[in-house]
Amino acid sequence: MKIRWFGQACFLIESEKGIRIVTDPFNSSLGYKIPPLEADMVTISHEHYDHNATDQVKGKPEIVRGVGEKKIKDIAIKGVDTFHDKAQGAQRGKNTVFSFEIDGMKIVHLGDLGHILTKEQIGAIGEVDILLIPVGGTFTLDAQEATQVVGQLKPKITIPMHYKTPAIDLPIEGVERFLSGNKNIEKKKELESRKEELPKEEKIIVLEY
Length: 209
Fold this sequence. Notes:
Number of strands: 16
Number of domains: 1
Structural class: mainly beta
CATH architecture: 4-Layer Sandwich
Order of helices and strands: EEEEEEEEEEEHEHEHEEE
Largest sheet: 8 strands, mixed
Helix content: 10-25%
Number of helices: 3
Mean pLDDT: 95
Distance between the termini: 19 Å
CATH superfamily: Ribonuclease Z/Hydroxyacylglutathione hydrolase-like
Low-confidence stretches: none
Radius of gyration: 15 Å
Strand order of the largest sheet: 8-9-10-11-12-13-16-14
């Protein structure tokens, strides 16, 4: 399985069989640029312009929104109901956390999660091998809250997302505060992983834009 980050909460996840998932595509007004992408499915965590630009993905992907379980091309997908804020959605609405079972691994994309998870949500998400988590604050979890959620889900690999980079002008933090105090950090252009290669100790991988 391969994972590549295109900025914000947008990733391309590709299975060993070549099945491709794009998460939360954005339009060009955000500042990042998505190269031409084709996918078999696109997941949308919530309906904001920087997460729901399905027209940016070529081919005829199946669009996945909301809660529930389904299977698309041998990949099991589950959507778990959460919120974009700490006020039960009163400020920014709902957010869907998606989990994918790919090549024997469980990948979880938290979308624009804005709060610490409840016991029920942790149970619904289940075990996590690779966690894609927002860390920039303001609109999502900040660095401290993201660290708490990592502690709740205990992934083997954590990949931060939705933080400030030179490509965007948003009132959010960079990734540095989330990384502070962590020693097991690696930077990569792309993550390529197999089940048997997952680290025994929790690891943070920062994907380059």
